[in-house]
Amino acid sequence: MSLTPAQIEDVKQAAARFMYYNRPPEDIRSKLDLGYRIKGQSVYVFEIRPQWDKPEIIQNYDVAKTTYVESKGYWKIFWLRANLKWYLSPPSPYVKSISEFFDEVEKDPAACFFG
Fold this sequence. Notes:
Layout: H1 5-22, E1 33-39, E2 42-50, E3 58-69, E4 74-80, E5 86-88, E6 94-95, H2 98-107
Antiparallel strand pairs: 1-2, 2-3, 3-4, 4-5, 4-6
Helix pairs in contact: 1-2
């Protein structure tokens, strides 16, 4: 199942605000940048970096994920651990809106997303 068109619009607006305030300066974006993608019921935030040994290869590294749980009416927040498995994010694993998800990623209270 996918997000509704209204939910996708909400994601785009919240993500645009997040990107505006959190993307690195333009002069270093070729070395580090942020992006997001929508896949099904989930929204991912990722870093964009050149591969360390082959800078011509650009890699995306997921740092945060949220999945909408329609039956409950909330978003579950996950972080990607070193074992490449997604875990619920402490201290706030659930939020009511997509804006709250982006706020949690920005604040990163447990240093899970950006270390």
